[in-house]
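pasting for ref
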Amino acid sequence: MFKFKNLRIKSKIFILLAMIFLPVSAMLVWDISLMKTVAFEVTEQLLTKKLKGDIKSVNNYAREFFGEMKIGQKGKLSDYKGTPLENRFEMVDKVYKDLGVAATVFAKDGNDFIRVITNIKKDNGERAVGTHLGTESAAYNSVKKGILYIGEANILGKPYLTGYDPIFDDKNNVIGILFIGISKTEIQSFINTSIDSSIYKSLLIMSIIIVLGVFISFFVARSISVSLNQAVAVSNALAGGDLTVTVEATSTDETGKLLMGMHNMVEKLKTVIIDVNAAADTVTTGSQDLSSSSEGMSQGATQQATAAEEVSSSMEEMGASIKQTADNAVETEKIAQKSAKDAIEGGEAVVQTVKAMKQIVEKISIVTEIARQTELLALNAAIEAARAGEHGKGFAVVASEVKRLAERSASSAREISDLSTNSMDVAEKAGNMLTKLVPGIQRTAELVQEIAATCKEQNNGAEQINRALQQLDQVIQQNAAASEEMSSTSEGLAAQAEQLQSAISFFKLDGSGSRDSSDQTMTSGKSSFLKTAKTTRAKTIRNQPSLKKDPVKQNGSGGFVLEMSNKDDI
């Protein structure tokens, strides 16, 4: 089955040229057939515009030669002096000479118009004067109404593109016509001649272009195919791994740039192969260094695990001490606060007692005063009883008893007053002592509270250290895992370097074949290195202590301690 993409470039170029030239030629022939019609229409439009301008010029010529035209005494069209226009052809001949158009002056003749002067000639060479416009003319109705007419008309049996401009007298009556016209036969002949000449020139140029296109296409296709064949040969050589191929670009066009690009690609590929080869050697050396580094990291992780266990054990003991101190401080703080509260309440009670005793002393002084007054009343009663004699003896006895009771009341009141005074002094001393004792108890409570806050801060610090130790334990385990991964990666890296060098040996550099014997020596060295790395990593993993994530315990004060003193790790 025919496929365009399978054709050679030369064939494709010739087919494309044929596909371009054939439609262009067909379009050219079709355009030529339309050219005459379009040209005639365009020319007719242009000439119509020209007639509109020329009609004004003819009016100027008429005013120049004849002035204001009018109907003379004999009923003939005359100039401004009254001289008839008949046989005065100077104006129409000048119009033809200057403007190249036919010119005629019509005079009104009844209902029609008659040619008075004209530069249009009959077939016998005589001027066509004395002939009428004809009422059937296309211009007749427009001119009769005093309107300028521009359009086609037959004059003496020949088609003209004409312009009819009415001539008016001083009463605005149509008395004649100024006519100009261009023969359409002459226009058609001119257009045909011009187009035939253009067609001949176009066909000649088209033929030359086709011949040149064929020759140019042949040489272009040849230059492209030669360069592409060379590019194909270079590509095949590169596909076979031969980097010794030589690429030469003899031009600067696209194909030349393609060959130059392939040349640069070959040179760059040589450089890349050499660099990759050197990089593979560097990777092999680096994998050895990486294995040594992973072994060192594994040993460091073991030492870090031991140190972390010791620090964790110490932190556990310190956390227990801090917890106990914090608990004692909390209990002491509670006792001190209670003692201070009780002392304050005792002081207040002593103050109330002192106030009560003062009131008792006041009341006792009242009782003493009553006893004194009762004693005076008893004395007065005894005196009155003595005065009464025998009648007052009973009253005297009562007065005597009342006096004794008053004396006993006064004595008891004095004793109670003395006791109240002494008790009030003792209570005041006790109140003063409690007043002095309360600040000390409050200060003690504040100190105990500060001790409790300090213990809390220490507990928080211990918690932070515990968290740090937990993170340190995670980091140690990550380092141990990373060391194992690094050791495994170094083995894989060495194997990949070996594969890379094996792949590079496919390319042929500087005329040599595959890699020399030094590659075999390097390969054997790499194999022994891989065995040594595997053995070293196995020993390291066996000797490495197991790193267990011990549970995190919560202490009584809300902090956390790390239990890292597992006996299995010692």
